[in-house]
Amino acid sequence: MSYQYDLDGQLALGSAAPNFSLPDTSGKIVNLADYKDKVRGLVVIFSCNHCPWVIKWEDRMIELARMFETKNVLFVCISSNDVVKYPQDGPVEMAKRAKQKGYPFPYLYDATQEVAHNYGAQVTPHIYLFDDDMRLCYRGAIDDNPNEELRPTQRYLKDAIETLLNKGSEQIKSSTTKPVGCSVKWK
Fold first, then answer.
1. Alpha helix segments (H runs only) across the chain
2. d(Cα 88, Cα 16) in Å, to the nearest integer?
3. Which residues have a Cβ under 8 Å from the Cβ of 54 and sit 6 or more positions away?
4. By the 8 A CB rule, do 137 and 172 touch?
């Protein structure tokens, strides 16, 4: 399937969510189709275990997932890093991390990196918010400051989700922000 991309290689706003069919940390296969016509929004986060940026934002990812789950906006995290060079980002360590942190969302493993390529993922964490038609309406960073001691002044993802729920995806003011994190570790 072909997708639309911006000049920087990221999935273009308004594009359909690229399909995925990936194992979670228990081995269960999770598909994009599991969410189609069933959610008001879907947040896809390219993540991993080792990146210090992910670690700094991880609690906020969990908090947002819990906050919006009751409003039928669900989250999925995907690790696509090369596990030969970064074994801590592989399925065994992912399962430990998900259990330790109590992830309220599936943590999926993209062994071929095809899904990360299809989304145009550049860093971890890299956020993609899709509306109920599975059209991209926000991509970028979680907020403007990963440091816990300096709470963010702009909550990009939270604001985008709230706008999506209350006014519709076309009303999201900042539809793209610069994703900040460690580069995806390509094979």
1. 52-69, 91-101, 114-119, 156-166
2. 31
3. 47, 48, 124, 125, 181, 182
4. yes
Question: pLDDT by residue (tens digit) across 105-156?
Answer: 999 999 999 999 999 999 999 999 999 999 999 999 999 988 766 678 889 9
**3.30.70.250, 2.20.25.160, 3.40.50.11270, 3.40.30.10: which CATH number matches 21-183?**
3.40.30.10
> Tell me: the pLDDT tens digits for 6-25?
888 899 999 999 999 999 99
CA-wise closest residue to 59 among 25, 93, 89, 103: 103
Rounded Cα–Cα distance for residues 38 and 8 (Å): 31
- Which two structure tokens, joined as six digits, stand for 179? 């994703």
